[in-house]
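Task card 7
Instruction: Convert sequence to structure tokens.
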Amino acid sequence: MVKYDEMKKIRDELLAFTASLLYEYRTTNNYFPVAGEGSHDASIMFVGEAPGKTEAMTGKPFCGAAGKFLTDLVESIGLKRPDVYITNIVKDRPPENRDPTPEEIELYAPFLVRQIDIIQPKVIATLGRHSMGYVMKHFDLDLELEPISRIHGKAFEATASYGPVTIVTLYHPAAALYNGGMRDTLKEDFKVLKKCIKK
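Output:
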């Protein structure tokens, strides 16, 4: 219950997050903030970049075409979607599905850090370069940072407030929607996650 209450507190704060430049855009369009979804005891946490239109309309992360592929990928390593926790760094949709700005990432990141501390995952899988950049810097892995094309599918050991955590860098599932070849790359990279949870 404690975890649930802490997560609810985050949701409530996001609803009233007038400090965000995206708040007005959200309220004008009758969108929802997208806090996250899944098990509060998950051993794997997926961190994307920001919600898209479908996500903002429903308040659920990764519920469009990219989300369906993410669900398939999770199942490919023997898990079900409700077993993992899925969220984004930025919890509100940027206009026109543009990339989140550094300012937006900085503004929303404290919510993500709190979610990590509540769930205490063994593995944090980053989806896309913005997520990868923030999470790796947060866990003092700056020196390991390279373009995602070079370090996708790699695992990095780090230390969280609650103990050891493995960071796995992955392409964003949306990339596979535009480039069919990425589907196989992501499926292959997900095998690294399977090894990490078997440790």
